[in-house]
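User: Show me an example of a complex going from sequences to structure tokens.

Assistant: Sure. Here are the input components:
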Amino acid sequence: MTTTNASLDERLDAARAAGRVLAAMSPGEKVDVLEAVAQALLAGSEAIIAMNADDLADARQSNAPAAMVDRLMLDRARIEGMAEAIRAVAALPDPVGTISGGWRVPNGLEIVETRVPLGVIGVIYEGRPNVTTDAAALALKSGNAIVLRGSRIAARSNEVLGEVVSDAIAAAGVPPAAVTMLGTDREEMLRLIQAEGKVDLVIPRGGEDLKAYLQQNARVPVIYAASGNCHVYVDADADLDEALAIAVNAKVQRPGVCNACETLLVHREVAGEFLPRVAGALLAEGVELRVSDEVRSHLDGFADDVAEATDEDFATEFLDLILSVGIVGSVKEAVDHVNRFGSGHSEAIITRSLDAARTFQQGVDSAVVYVNASTRFTDGGEFGMGAEIGISTQKLHARGPIGLADLTTVKYLVTGTGQTR
Amino acid sequence: MTTTNASLDERLDAARAAGRVLAAMSPGEKVDVLEAVAQALLAGSEAIIAMNADDLADARQSNAPAAMVDRLMLDRARIEGMAEAIRAVAALPDPVGTISGGWRVPNGLEIVETRVPLGVIGVIYEGRPNVTTDAAALALKSGNAIVLRGSRIAARSNEVLGEVVSDAIAAAGVPPAAVTMLGTDREEMLRLIQAEGKVDLVIPRGGEDLKAYLQQNARVPVIYAASGNCHVYVDADADLDEALAIAVNAKVQRPGVCNACETLLVHREVAGEFLPRVAGALLAEGVELRVSDEVRSHLDGFADDVAEATDEDFATEFLDLILSVGIVGSVKEAVDHVNRFGSGHSEAIITRSLDAARTFQQGVDSAVVYVNASTRFTDGGEFGMGAEIGISTQKLHARGPIGLADLTTVKYLVTGTGQTR
């Protein structure tokens, strides 16, 4: 589907107008809208599954990888899961209207800082159709219009999902343009990310290629979901049983996600005792170890099972059962290593020393810094923030799990009695 | 002065390392550093004035406008003012280390959200040398390294100011690279705004040309200081004496700034009574009026003194003694006009009606929305936030006056007792 420039502009203007209607709705009205969407999704599940079957057939015919086909697949159970996810978002506290600050100044003006929706949010994503309803729910809850641009592989699934959602919100009194589904035309995506003034935020949910494309081309504000080269540092004062459990958990519990550990650093004083234990446990879990020469000197029993770690290994987010292992002489050295090689996502120190914990937490320049816990907890759900849009490793606006409140901005409401300067 | 790519990278790395030293300093240590800078500025004033005289001579020889020469000029009194401004920043509350949130999750993890410096901030500015020390003071106070890129017209003034500041902080224990002065080479500026990962934020303080250049070329995060097409709307329920005072104040008290009023909207019900009064007052202050046909119909006595307003006039930030004037039939129409033509900066409604005030404040999509006060109060100082870096009309990270806290980000510090997933 190709859309002309004018018609994208018109659709973005319609989305903004629809967003203004949403912005004025009460929290209760928005809960009702989301419930209507959840019910429409369940009522429409047969039609959705039929369209999804066409996408699946094409994906299989073009020999798409099995994991990709699985992510694309919708059945009754998955649609029920999507409806439940919408209800979970509906149940979150409404961030709009929160008073984030307020004060009076000497001349009597009363200043109130309140949270308001951003306006129009664009989401660009790959072949998981559940992102369509997840993102729409988060946008509706936070009073924003959303413009969705999904992957070609899920084009028909997304089209029908978009229709179901738009129809449901229209029946509930929200202009359907509040959830706008674009086609999969690449030229249109380029215009979307360059529509200054018409789009308040774009969130890409895709791989490094999409990210690089936006970094080169976007002129609207973008929040990038993170890559995570996360570290676990085992200090000289660590409880080594705890360190073992955390190092293994952070690496193997779900290696393909951004908060999994990619590098283990061990203090020289405990290297001789700890490294053989942790290497044995990790190798037993099928982890490939890439180690420095000094680490290798402590792993006589595993000489054939470990590879040499290069600087590139220490800089790599493997997203796989691979771990770089190094030795440091101090907390300071660990901090320097993390700041040099890390991506600013999540790091952990295992220690009983207050001083070491403090030095590490203060020195490491990352979104989340743990003491005596696995890096795997960096997650909106685990943080108790509810659904998240991703994890941010950038420093402006949102850092760490991106929650509902990050889809809002502030507005200052100032009340006077005729004040002039 | 031309710098090679490698040397800019090295300077940015040195700035980051210096920033880490600053980030670890206590509030009291930073106050001492700022006091040392203020004293060094006073002690170095003769040398600064001598270098500034060379810049001034060149500026005059090249027939620079008198206002530009005046902004460039430094004398003893202005340097004392710069030192006082540094001390005022030193006296502000330190934003670093503020706990912005904290909670425990069911598994016992303790999550603390704390404010930390951004890291390295770039500021690109025009020919006012006081920006050099103002910006450096704000960066030092918020624990950030700063990379300054001033205008060619002030090159020698900025060079000596940069040296004075760097020497002073070095003597106070901060690596001098925490305040890094670049040359005026344009190629180097381009590399600065494309130095992804090495610069956490760039703030341009210049005109629309600089802004457009950054919008096209920047790959690092940027916060743009605002343009302001601000509105005053006089409602049917307004106290017309109050409305008159505010409309005149918002237009004439300082017309060249971003929070001055550019458009006056009047409700049809009070147009006949209010417009002749306000037109008389504004014309007496030397304001040029550009009015709609309906407005003109109420201004029989001033027919020769008013021009016709076009849509372009309503969209223009005049920054001058010029005002567009229109009539609307309702608060809703006023809101729509503001959202169509405004720049999202500051707007005011004058009314005694709670419903009108609420409709206007809720509906207008601007950083600051006033009830019964002049738009001229949108200012860090007037808001009681102390020194500001500018006013933001963007919605991400900072909206409204950009204060010290906006030069920080959050870091989550999570403490556990061995938790794994």
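The lines above are the inputs; the final block is the predicted structure for all two components together. Chain A is about 45% helix and 20% strand.
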